Amino acid sequence: MAVIAMTRETATRGSEVAAGLANRLGLAIVHHEIVEHDIADRAGMPETEVHRFLEGETSLFERWTLDRKRMSRYTAQEILELAAKGNVLIRGWGATYLLKSVPHVICVRICAPMLFRESVLIERLGIGIAANARREIERSDAAHNRTIQRLFGVDWEYPSLYAIVLNTARVPVADCVEHIVRLAESSTFQETARSRGVLMDQIISLRARTAVERQFGANSTQNCFDVHVFSGKVLLTGATTDEQMIVEAVRLLQGVEGVTSVESKVAHVAFVPHED
């Protein structure tokens, strides 16, 4: 089941490449409405607020008040869960960064020089002045780069995130599709038990961390709880003065979907009263 994560710059004809791949490989293209709706459900936030954040449209005050760590985790969980379904093409939302370590996922970047992008946008939207097209492109690029930086602290232009980078000013859309299809059909990018396990461990880790945060809130941070997952087995680390919290955390993690076993290495620290 092919999984493609794609980053495309505005006005590079990346949407045409995505459509061609979906047609050739029978993939579902994940549209932003689906992702935003599901992230909003996970985070308990209005869809409009999630949309504004992911599109880089939030005000400075909104960015201060939003819990970026929580938004990052919910976004990551949604993208990984979508990838686990297979036969999908995920555009944007940091998918290339989140899925780069999963062996069967093809991470693709579609780009082009500014002059080419200006001409595409002028043709597409009927913008008569190249300078106006350039401003719109620069605004879009900056907004999306800020969002990825805030969520995951990475630069979406970094080459090592991608298996293949295609310049649509030099490589026609049809040829871009062919290059990526050949990768999808190669043995390198076939899903295996090992590659599936890598993806599932990432998903289980996010599910577990979300469960711990919901159950214990600020206490999970204060006690330095952390979750490590290996082949579905969870290792819980940290330190706390509350022995009962350790018991509750282990019981909680045992109920997380996909977890096969839980081991605690949380240190129980005796409380020492402060003497004046």
Protein described:
There is one protein chain. This protein is of the alpha/beta class. It has two domains: 3-191, Rossmann fold; 194-268, 2-Layer Sandwich (Histidine-containing Protein, Chain: A), CATH 3.30.1340. Helices cover 54% and strands 16% of the residues. It has twelve helices and eight strands. It has a five-stranded parallel beta sheet, sandwiched between helices. The chain is globular and about 75 Å long.
- End-to-end Cα distance: 65 Å
Please give the CATH architecture of the largest domain: 3-Layer(aba) Sandwich
Rounded to an integer in angstroms, the radius of gyration calculated over CA atoms is 22 Å
Indicate the multimeric state: single chain
| Tally of distinct domains | 2
User: Quick one: CATH class of the largest domain?
Assistant: Alpha Beta
Count the strands? Answer: 8
Give the CATH superfamily of the largest domain.
P-loop containing nucleotide triphosphate hydrolases
Number of helices: 12
Low-confidence stretches: none
The topology string of helices and strands comes to EHEHHHHEHEHHEHHHEEHE
Mean pLDDT: 88
Give me the secondary-structure category. Answer: alpha/beta
Task: Report the principal-axis shape.
Answer: globular
Helix content, binned percent: 40-55%
> Mind describing the biggest β-sheet?
5 strands, parallel
CATH topology of the largest domain: Rossmann fold
Strand order of the largest sheet: 2-3-1-4-5
Instruction: Tell me the strand percentage band.
Output: 15-25%
